[in-house]
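FORM 7B: Structural annotation worksheet

SECTION A. Query
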Amino acid sequence: MTSTHHGPRMAGDGRREANAATVLRTVLDHGPVSRGAVARLSGLSPAAVSRQATDLSRLGLLRDLPESAGAGGVGRPRIPVDLHVGAIGGPVAAGVHLGVPGSTFALVDLRGRVLARRHFPHEALGPERLSEAVGTELRAFLGRHVAGRPLLGVGAAIGGWVDPAAGIVVRHDALGWCRRPLAAELSRALGGTAVRLDNHARAIAQSEILFGRPAARRSLVHLFVGNVVDAAIGLAGVVHQGPGAAAGDVAHLPVPDSTVPCPCGRSGCLEATASNTALALTAVRRGIVPEAETSLVVDAAAAGDRRADRLLRERARAVGRAVALLLDVLNPDLVLVTEQASVLEPDYLEEIRGAAIDHSHVCDDPERIVSPHAGPATLPVAAGTVLLNPLFRRPIETLEELRSAKAAG
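SECTION B. Predicted structure
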């Protein structure tokens, strides 16, 4: 069912939505903050800020902090407002990152802070049973941790080619999925709870734009290196999707100096060279670890195994050479690299930076290459951002959509 709006109402609703988004984003960036300060920072009139703050408080997204008002001052007290975060009874979003060997569940508040988290290993499950099993486990997780707080919905992130508008995984080679209606499957398993889906590289990029470094809002490139290798591009706060939401497939980007054979028939492709799968298999072949698991390699290096450290540095340099190509083509303000070892240990990030600067023709500033702001919580925060990003861009419409989906379910 669709609703019909007439011309004048559409214009008014558009202004209201834009003003609400501006107020909400200003409070995210600066809160707790007084309404007067929101007006100065945002450029909106005090009256517009007051109306929107009242509406957003009524919707449960903002709250007054009278306990922080300056007592004993002269004149009308300046009562600050802040986001109504989940730790104090505010709304929460669930996030699920579906990986190949396992999935991560999380509950996050409006600032993208993780309130609860759980890892669900599922290597033994076949792809056909995966979405049902993840939905069942996620439902149990939410039953234990939501604890009466308003649940906005679920954000889901996964590798491969994802169409967010349709809620489908168009292609995920590692799982053998083709046009899988994952959002609908998870929603059914959760009793009709609204589920929004996106590619994990885009989700991490959007998380950095929303909650991370200010430079990310100007322009960024994100390179995700896991079992799946893909990328995302953000410009002026918007992550690019392209026709069919197919942007970001860099699995076959050539890595300079790499001769690793790829299933595509070529050699030196990025995924074949640097993925978790490639790293783990090499570690087993060299006798570094007994099982093909990346975390074992990282643990071995942390425990002082020089062979594991050398292998992780080899991968870091290969990733850095790929980063140099992206820098030269796009020259963004920020390059975000999600790669397990460098997220946990800064030395490996320095290897990535060094190789990138050595091979780039346009970038001589290694500080432009960073790990995600959320560190080890990157994936669950990004999954939650799939739901929270539209809320901050269109708070009133998005809340209506989420509540309508819940009522229909």
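SECTION C. Observations
The chain is about 45% helix and 20% strand. The CA atoms of residues 32 and 121 lie 39 Å apart.

SECTION D. Sign-off
Analyst initials: ____
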